[in-house]
Amino acid sequence: MVMASEPADGDVHVFERTFTHADVEQFGEVSGDQQAIHTEPDSEGRLVVQGLLTATLPTKIGGDLGVLARSMEFEFLEPVYTGESITCEVTTESVDEREDRYEIACAVVCRRAGETVLNGRFEGLVWKAGQ
């Protein structure tokens, strides 16, 4: 996949999602993460969203941009619960242009009502058109 436009330092991309019980259950089946916090609702009827499921927010943005990730690093700061709206912001920190690709590094922040729940970064490449 090739990015629609050239990446540039300072580009910001945002995606928002609310995870459901079905999302947590399906991810648990695929990942094998079936801890009680992901399968048994709390007193408010919520499940805790798996950390790596929360990390699919920046991977969705990366996929939209055509990024082939080489490394990812995440710091999970607060639990995320089903029914909560989470906003993910990915900021391009650096772009190194090569003959056939762009090598990029991005910062990630995911928030719930202004509170940071996940920080991270990823590095990867984006193929130029025709490559």
What form results from the Cα inertia axes? elongated
The CATH topology, please?
Thiol Ester Dehydrase, Chain A
The strand count comes to 5
The helix-strand sequence is EHHHHEEEE
Q: How many distinct helices?
A: 4
Mean pLDDT: 94
How many domains make up the 3D coordinates?
1
- Would you identify the CATH H-level superfamily? Hotdog Thioesterase
What is the CATH level 1 assignment? Answer: Alpha Beta
Oligomer: single chain
Instruction: Tell me the helix content.
Output: 10-25%
How would a textbook summarize the main sheet?
5 strands, antiparallel
What is the gyration radius calculated from CA atoms? 16 Å
- Low-pLDDT segments, ≥5 res: none
N/C terminus separation? 9 Å
| Lateral strand order in the biggest sheet | 1-3-4-5-2
* Percentage of residues in DSSP E strands: 35-45%
Helix/strand/pairing category: alpha+beta
CATH architecture designation: Roll
Name the features:
alpha+beta; five-stranded antiparallel beta sheet; Thiol Ester Dehydrase, Chain A; 131 residues
Can you tell me about this structure?
The mean pLDDT is 94. The chain has one domain: Hotdog Thioesterase (Thiol Ester Dehydrase, Chain A). With 131 residues, it is an alpha+beta fold. The chain is built from 4 helices and 5 strands; from the N terminus they run βααααββββ. Strand 3 and strand 4 form a beta hairpin. The longest helix is centred in the N-terminal third of the chain and has 11 residues. Pfam families: MaoC_dehydratas (PF01575). InterPro entries: HotDog_dom_sf (IPR029069), MaoC-like_dom (IPR002539), UPF0336/Enoyl-CoA_hydratase (IPR050965). GO terms for molecular function: (3R)-hydroxyacyl-[acyl-carrier-protein] dehydratase activity.
